[in-house]
Amino acid sequence: MEKVKLVRVTTVPQSLYKLLEGQLKYMSQYFSVTAISTEGELLDKVALRENITTTAIKMNRGISPIRDIVSIIKMISFLTKNKPNIIHSHTPKAGLVSMISGYISGVPIRMHTVAGMPLESRSGLKRKLLLYAEKLTYKFATKVFANSYGIEKFILENRLTSNSKLSIIKKGSSNGIDSNYFSRSPKLESKATQIRRQLGIKVDTFVFGFIGRLVKDKGINELISCFAELSKVRNVHLILVGKYENELDPLSEKTNRLISDLPNISFVGYQSDVRPYFMSFDAFVFPSYREGLPNVLLQAAAMEVAILASDCTGNTDIVEHKVTGILFSIADEESLGHAMISIIAEEERESYVIKARRSIELNYTREGVWEDLYVEYQNLLESKDSNKS
Predict the structure, then answer these.
(1) d(C-alpha 111, C-alpha 175), whole Å
(2) Same domain, 251 and 155
(3) Residues in contact with 384: Cβ distance below 8 Å, sequence separation at least 6, in sequence order
(4) Phi and psi for 308 in degrees, rounded to 5?
(5) Which one of 228, 231, 256, 361 is least enclosed by Cβ atoms within 10 Å?
(6) Is residue 318 one of the residues assigned to a domain?
(7) Are 133 and 149 found together in one domain?
(8) What is the pLDDT of residue 374?
(9) Does 359 map to a domain?
């Protein structure tokens, strides 16, 4: 019997490689899976690792109507030729291109997962354009998944789609987390000790850490400013793990200068294995302006690191204030500063860590998310079949 055809789409191959790691291979047991994204070396790696077929269709992350039309035409051509039963997209631009193309091509099940909205941190005309693009994506989708309760609430409050079309897989998350991989061990502890030693961090220094894109939207300007003031009165160090995206969302000149000049800030760039870095932190700080359900917070919780996070959509699904971590106000240096000071002396820090890890194990295991998504696919396929008969 021929397998049902499933197409998964992201704007860039990094999302397929990182966001959906393992999930595509799991789905290939039951479906004929094709992943589509903009061309790149990682797209070939996804094909090999997940044992699936991949196809390159260029999609632009920014607002670009003419290029988007070209992407839609190419997507329609692919879908018309291959006739998949399901098309399921992630990331905003992939969603817009896929849902419009899927509708025009007659793909019966069109699903889009919302894992964060750039429009939350935008204003004026740009916000209106992004809001319209979201509405358009949901209009042509047959099913919309919010990957957190915060995102679900935002979608309904802004009337972007109907309640009947919207749902959440498990407790949220696009892919869950491998809690066995993200767990502490003596080997990782040794690596963490080595990292601190290499960076010249003394044993009695309290280490804050950040892992992610070093951009304005992640609250890095506020983080660096607060840390610079805190370091004048406390024995602290800050480790920054990630990449700059100066062409999309650059940091301020002041922030870049402080990162470069302050001896107790260590920028270590992108790291393929972040686990020993988590273990080198005393506290993980995540001052993002907007999120869906951030994987890095799931990782921090699984790695048993005390968490400080902004109270933005998505973060509040994972962090319960004074229970599994500390929340502070978005883009508020005073609130962030108080949180950073309080976590240093917080007697309940160990309690936060234990409860956060337990929450991850109960609600966000990778296998649980995969199984629930598979059931959702099957239910939708059966519903389509019953409607035909």
Answers:
(1) 15
(2) no
(3) 108, 109
(4) -115, 125
(5) 361
(6) yes
(7) yes
(8) 97
(9) yes
- Distance in angstroms (rounded) separating the CA atoms of residues 40 and 65: 22
User: Which strand (E) or helix (H) includes residue 350?
Assistant: helix 349-363
Nearest residue to 5 via CA among 45, 25, 33, 29: 33
- Total structural domains within the chain: 2
Which SS3 state, helix, strand or coil, does residue 209 take? strand
Q: Are residues 217 and 231 in the same domain?
A: yes
Does a structural domain hold residue 181? Answer: no
Rounded Cα distance, 202 and 213, in Å? 27
Collapsed DSSP state (helix, strand, coil) of residue 214? strand
Closest CA to 75 of 3, 9, 138: 9
Q: CB burial class (10 A; 0-12, 13-18, 19+) of residue 49?
A: middle
Using 50 as the pLDDT threshold, list the residues of the chain that sit under it.
Answer: 389
Verify that 144 and 203 share a domain, yes or no.
no
Indicate whether 119 and 66 sit together in one domain: yes
Cβ neighbors of 133 (< 8 A, separation 6 or more) are: 92, 96
Q: Is residue 317 situated within a structural domain? A: yes
The DSSP code sequence of 20-57 is TTTHHHHHTTTEEEEEEES-SHHHHHHHHHHT-EEEE-
**Helix or strand or coil: residue 268?**
strand
Where do we find the tokens 């998350």? 173
Instruction: Identify which of 174, 387, 214, 183 has the alpha carbon closest to the alpha carbon of residue 304.
Output: 183
Instruction: Write a three-state SS string for 71-128.
Output: HHHHHHHHHHHHCCCEEEEECHHHHHHHHHHHHHHCCCEEEEEECCCHHHHCCHHHHH
Distance CA 53, CA 9 (A): 12
Separation of alpha carbons 276 and 283, rounded Å: 13
Residue 92 to residues 38, 98, 298, 370: CA-CA distances in angstroms? 14, 10, 22, 21
For residue 148, what are the domain limits?
4-176+365-388
Cα 367 to Cα 197: distance, rounded to the nearest angstrom: 37
φ, ψ at 237 (rounded to 5°) = -140, 150
